[in-house]
Specification:
The structure holds 2 protein chains of 2 kinds. Chain A contains 12 helices and 2 strands; from the N terminus they run αααββααααααααα. Chain A is mainly alpha-helical. Chain A has a two-stranded antiparallel ribbon. The longest helix of chain A has 38 residues. Chain A is elongated and about 80 Å long. By secondary structure, chain B is mostly helical. Chain B contains 12 helices and 2 strands; from the N terminus they run ααααββαααααααα. In chain B, strands 1-2 form a two-stranded antiparallel sheet. Chain B starts with a helix and ends in a 7-residue tail after the last helix. The chains are: A mainly alpha, B mainly alpha. Chain B: Its main location: membrane. Chain B: This is ABC transporter permease.
Chain lengths: 293, 329
């Protein structure tokens, strides 16, 4: 309980947690919010664009369009960023879940396995950590058929390429946990490797792995945004913040608002998640206190 | 030492082989046939077979991969109509799209990415070490806060967001700088730097935070050590203590990080290059991937993989060189 207390005393953590919480709610209730605004993210509104100036919106923020409309298509910007939150957060969270599953699985197996298993799995981990991930992700995403669901695909690609760090941490912690007396006691009383892993090792892994996970979540969001920005991630009409920024680059001289909205949201959300991760880490690992104040 | 080096080189070769096999395998799983794309409309089966042979796609995938590896070390010959064209080692094949040798394409683009990475790294180191040192010595309280903010921002901002912001500010609003276009250093060094300054800043905003943090931690740690207290007691001037003792301890971890980061910037330069429209290796990749240009994609992946692997090895060696306590096993 004192850990929780200390978290609540951390103003930066609180601010981050509130903003991150709001973003998660926005993502969850996207259909409700857009219904309230009376808009949807895919309807074109050519009548709101100035065709003489190449399709720049005629009006900025209006009562109908809370953040204005997209240049070129006239789609409602508010509806698009709200649904974009869904895709951006959804991809990052699902990728994280997969990463943890793969990383912890491989890490614990390496830590508890014999010399041979450990060597093979550790080399495999090193291999994924040594790859230029972005380059590989681009190649991977570009050749997959267009008809496959992009957000799910992105989550899988990010997870497949990014489980190395988790595996390394899980292995290190497992190696240290398995020398503890209570683990030896369980072994001596006849518990098999699987049982030891589930009952004795996994609970001990929770704190370090989750602390690390809090930091990969924003980095997954950055990867998703980057891939979508390059045009190999989420593609229109599906909105994500990275995809919106990508289309916004062609308009940013004529319509800076179009860059600003997804850009600011991405930045604020990432910052919020980093503050949360930072706060958690400071509480869990007191040695870090000096480094990141 | 020799054993270590051998193992290191062996590991590097395994990584690069793995990388190239994965990329090759990906392309044979791809739904599009590059030979049909190249052959174009009105393609007869005979012509398609010729095109396949010219592209080196007529053998089975493992045989093709083997040919590719042989070409890399020994060079190889491609049938081109009635003639044969020889591609000397290290041969990465010819681009399906432009028919130029991949090695030439890479050599044309590499100076751009290298300019980007090296300039950004130097700027990040200068800013990072300076800020970290001042903040570690607690000279300016406000700097401490700025460094903290930057560290958080470094984690939280994608490089293209910083890039967009810089472009909006300096090229659109203030109009202080032209939109970046690449000018070779040998043509006009001033124009080279002027066009690259925004990409450098964009990368440095993200990179320098890590250096500032490391320098600060290192400086604070070494200033708290006994030998520093002794030096102070002997009346050695504070400036000299900082130079000879505190900085030295703080810079050791930076040496290794610099090598790794240089390669990392090259490997992730694709975002920065796309953002600023710089014709580097990353842009080559994005274009090639959309055209199913297998030789180019394999070439870029291998080159970046090679840089990353070499940088990691160099980092380990440097680490042992600057810190005698480290044993290489």
């Amino acid at each position: 309980m004192t850990l929780f207390r200390r978290l609540l005393d951390d103003r930066a953590f609180l601010a981050g947690a509130v903003i991150a919480g709001v973003m998660v709610l926005v993502a969850l209730f996207a259909p409700l919010l857009t219904a309230l605004a009376g808009q949807d993210p895919t309807t074109f509104h050519p009548e709101l664009l100035d065709s003489a100036r190449g399709g720049v919106p005629l009006h900025g923020i209006t009562a109908d369009h809370w953040l204005g409309v997209e240049p070129g298509t006239g789609r409602d910007l508010f509806a698009r960023v709200v649904y974009g939150a869904r895709v951006s957060l959804g991809v990052a969270v699902s990728a994280l879940a997969l990463q943890l599953l793969i990383g912890v699985g491989i890490g614990v197996a390496a830590g508890l396995g014999g010399r041979y298993t450990d060597a093979v799995l550790s080399r495999l981990t090193d291999l994924t950590l040594a790859f230029p991930l972005l380059v590989l992700a681009i190649a991977l995403l570009a050749i997959v058929p267009q008809s496959w669901p992009r957000p799910a695909l992105l989550a899988v690609v990010i997870a497949l390429l990014g489980w190395g760090g988790t595996a390394r941490i899980a292995r290190g912690e497992t190696l240290s946990l398995k020398t503890r007396d209570y683990v030896s006691a369980a072994r001596v009383s006849g518990a098999g490797t699987l049982l030891v892993a589930r009952r004795e090792i996994l609970p001990g892994l929770a704190a370090p792995v989750l602390t690390y996970a809090a930091l990969i979540l924003p980095s997954n969001m950055i990867t998703e945004a980057g891939l979508s920005f390059l045009g190999v991630g989420v593609r229109p009409p599906t909105p994500s913040w990275g995809q919106m920024l990508s289309s916004a680059t062609t308009w940013f001289r004529a319509d800076p608002m179009y860059v600003f909205v997804p850009g600011a949201l991405l930045f604020v959300t990432l910052l919020a998640f980093v503050l949360v991760a930072n706060g958690v880490r400071r509480v869990v690992d007191p040695r870090q206190r000096e480094v990141l104040r | 030492m020799t054993g270590y080096l051998l193992r290191r080189v062996g590991g590097a070769i395994v990584v690069l082989l793995g990388l190239s096999i994965i990329v090759y395998a990906l392309f044979y799983l791809a739904p599009k046939d590059p030979a049909i794309l190249t052959c174009g409309k009105g393609c007869t089966p005979d012509r398609l077979a010729d095109v396949r042979a010219a592209m080196g796609l007529d053998a089975s995938p493992p045989a093709q991969y083997w040919e590719f590896l042989r070409g890399l070390f020994l060079g190889r010959d491609f049938p081109a109509g009635p003639d044969v064209r020889h591609c000397p080692a290290p041969c990465l094949g010819y681009s399906f799209e432009t028919d130029q040798p991949v090695t030439k394409l890479l050599a044309d683009r590499l100076p751009v990415s290298a300019s980007l990475a090296i300039g950004a790294e130097i700027l990040s180191l200068a800013v990072g070490i300076g800020a970290g040192l001042l903040s570690g010595l607690r000279r300016f309280r406000i700097l401490d806060r700025i460094v903290n903010g930057l560290i958080l921002a470094g984690y939280a901002v994608p490089v293209f967001l910083v890039g967009l912001f810089l472009l909006l500010l300096f090229c659109v609003r203030l109009q202080w700088l032209p939109f970046p276009t690449y000018v070779p250093f040998t043509t006009d060094p001033a124009a080279w730097a002027e066009n690259l300054i925004l990409p450098w800043i964009a990368l440095a905003v993200i990179q320098s935070a890590a250096y500032a943090r490391l320098t600060r931690a290192g400086v604070q740690e070494s200033l708290a050590e006994d030998h520093v207290r002794t030096a102070r007691a002997y009346g050695i001037p504070e400036g000299r203590i900082v130079r000879t003792r505190a900085l030295r301890g703080a810079l050791v971890p930076l040496v290794t990080l610099t090598a790794i980061d240089l390669a990392a910037i090259m490997a992730s330069a694709v975002l920065t290059e796309t953002m600023f429209g710089l014709p580097g290796v990353g842009q080559l990749l994005v274009g090639a991937v959309n055209q199913i240009d297998l030789p180019v994609v394999v070439g870029v992946t291998l080159l970046t993989g090679f840089l990353v692997v070499v940088a990691n090895a160099v980092a380990d060696l440097l680490y042992a060189a600057v810190d005698p306590r480290v044993q290489l096993r």
